[in-house]
Amino acid sequence: MSGPSSSASIDLLGDLVASARKAGADAADAVLIDSVSLSVGLRLGEMERLERSESGDIGLRVLIGRRQAFVSSSDRSPTALAELVERAVTMAQIVPEDPYCGLADPAELAHDFPELDVCDPVEPTAERLIDMVRRGEDAARAVTGVTNSEGASAGWGRSGVAIVASNGFAYGYAVTNSSFSVRVLAGDAVNGMERDYDYTTAVHFADLRTPEEVGRDAGSRAVRRLGARKVATRQVPVIYDPRVARGLISSLTGAINGASVARGTTFLKDRLGQAIFPKGIRIIDDPHRQRGLRSRPCDGEGVATSRRAVVEDGVLTTWLLDLRSARQLGMHSTGHASRGTTSPPSPSPSNFYLEAGAVTPAELIHDIPDGFYITDLFGQGINGVTGDYSRGAAGFWISGGEMSFPVAEVTVAGNLKDMFLNLTPASDLVLRHGVDCPTLRLDGLTVAGR
After folding, report:
1. What digits encode the pLDDT tens for the residues 102-132?
2. pLDDT tier at 189, thresholds 50, 70, 90
3. pLDDT tens, position by position, 242-273
4. Which of 56, 58, 70 is nearest to 28 (CA)?
5. In this prediction, what percent of the chain has a pLDDT beyond 70?
6. What is the CA radius of gyration of the chain?
7. What is the pLDDT of residue 381?
8. What are phi and psi of 58, to 5 degrees?
């Protein structure tokens, strides 16, 4: 089985795996990643960065019995590759046994590879990126109230990935990513200053939002935060803007990661098949979304991928599993293995999103006499073992169902088990990122201020 990447990469890895077998490995697989990137940065109209980089790495995994070892190299000369094989086999002979390691059974391997349109054939020029950052920062600085800039940046990258294994798997594909961001400040040292940002990212360069739109939004976000103040500590309904709601749903991906489940280090370790969200909530993991930022035709172990409802009608239906965590749990891989060249595969989500609800964001807010609309979160105060949640926050106070004044320097706290069970999604889902979520309402959280 071969894919659309360079046949030379497949041939090189095939020879490497064959050499490992001849040197004494019972099984082996190899991954090659070739990357090229271009980035520019500008501040106050002056260029600060223009960089182009190219890299290439090969990772080899060899297995002898229940022992495995990993080695990597950026040198592809015959001598270097021969040394790579020798080191890997030697290491695999002396490392401790791992009863759960191993390649995929041939029956688990992907045979059909969907065309996902994840590689943009057009590479933007440096001049085009420079034009973007100038236009974007100019648009942000033109917003009344913006007084300074932390800069604008744009980037593009392409990676070619190839995997070959001794179980018969051989495939390769390429992916691209483009991004653009602006960060500015509003106000002054006497009356107070606030900063904010906006950004856009996409597989295809043409799918990015315009620099002017991103710049204006960054400037407007910073200005509307001026005059922020603390509020008294209380329990109130909290609204999560989509920008921060994505982070809340990302917490779920960590809690259902098969490696964490196998170790027993997640607050959801005993909740498979149980309701962890309200009825009607549906959360999807879709590796086959066209032009998705995390789309993939197969996983990092060659296992077939598929679209899954991770949460169906509020019920947790699956873990995110690679081969190792699946074996630990007595289950089958769900095709969620990801890998680089220097470490073993591990589970990770693909395009992960909470489906839209039936009400608009305005309808979520209109019956709240006092509440908090969060636009930014700070810190990493999430305990994955207990689900305890405490993060610094900024946003706007809700009074009488409407936004009234900006809020800063407060903390929002709760427990993810309760938060998941008491959330309501709005109807404004937009699929732009690897993790996406509509506006969310959560009742009964503690907002700690003065």
Report:
1. 999 999 999 999 999 999 999 999 999 999 9
2. confident
3. 999 999 999 999 999 999 999 999 999 999 99
4. 70
5. 99
6. 24
7. 86
8. -125, 135
**3-state class of 419 per DSSP?**
helix
Tokens of 356: 């839209």
Pairwise CA distance, residues 286 & 335, whole Å = 11
Q: Is 270 left (phi over 0), alpha (psi -120 to 50) or beta?
A: alpha
According to DSSP, the residues that pair with 244 across neighbouring strands are: none
Residue 367: Cβ within 10 Å count = 10
Where along the chain do the CATH 3.30.2290.10 domains lie?
A: 7-221
SS3 category, 380: coil
**Would you place residue 331 in the very low, low, confident or very high pLDDT band (cuts 50, 70, 90)?**
very high
Which phi and psi angles does 364 have, rounded to 5°?
-65, -30
The CA distance from 354 to 218, in Å, is: 25
pLDDT digits (tens, 9 = 90+) for 197-224: 999 999 999 999 999 999 999 999 999 9
State the number of CA atoms in the 13 A half-sphere of 301 facing the CB: 27
Query: Residue for token digits 């994505």?
Result: 246
Domain 7-221 bears CATH identifier 3.30.2290.10 = yes
Enumerate the β-bridge partners of residue 158.
36, 176
Contact status, residue 24 vs residue 64, Cβ threshold 8 Å = yes
Distance CA 152, CA 144 (A): 18
Residue 254 to residues 261, 296, 355, Cα–Cα distance (Å): 9, 19, 19
Distance (Å, rounded) from C-alpha 322 to C-alpha 346? Answer: 6
